[in-house]
Request: fold
Amino acid sequence: MRLWKIHKRPDLFMRKGKTTMSQHPAHHDAYAAEPGSGLAVTSLVMGILGLILCPLTSIPGLILGIMGLARANETPPRASGKGMAIAGVVTSGLAMLASILVVPLLIGIMLPALGQARQSAMRLQSSANIRMMLQGLSIQSQANNGQFPQTADDWQQNLIDAGFVSADMFTSPATDGLGDDYFFVPGGRDDFDASRIVIYEDPALNPDGTLIGFADAHVEWFDQTTAMQMLSNLTLPDGTRYAPHESDPSASARGGQP
Reply:
């Protein structure tokens, strides 16, 4: 009697959770190739990140895409997602190509800007050095009836000994270590003449221009042509031409005028 019920009503047997193997074989086979598709998805995601954010993710993205594509092409296939794997390889390859082309271009754009920023910082530091020297000379002149030192001998050491400047201020940020970086024009009074040159940086240190300090303690940057014209007209109070940057022992080594 029980066997008859099972034969006539197989659904009673299935209700107890004992299904036969013939009911779902196709269902299991359909998912047999799914686990490896994660490689393709990861490759696509990393390729997109490489295009948008960081080109470095394109390298593992390309490797994972090739692995996912290889699995999808096996017979029988060990993974699905062949289309995603191809997309991952393409996006990762494009990200790598973009990094090869764009990164050198960005470097080429940024390097000159960084160089200009460095030059500006050095110019500001050198200008501050000259201004401190001018202020020290002005204070010294008050104890000397308003007269600047009459010779350039030991002018640097005198300022250091008086505590107006430190020794490192006589070294320009653009120094090459070959000779004096700053030159003092001796003589004259501390008359705050905004046109009279008192201290200047060696023109050979920077081919673009030169910093010049005046008797009123202001400092200006002049292009090289203008600066050389101004320095060529330098004279002492007695009318003698004065050009210490030309006679400096390091002038020829720095490319200055002998």
In short: Residues 121-254 form one domain. The first strand starts at residue 182 and ends at 184. The chain has ten helices and four strands.
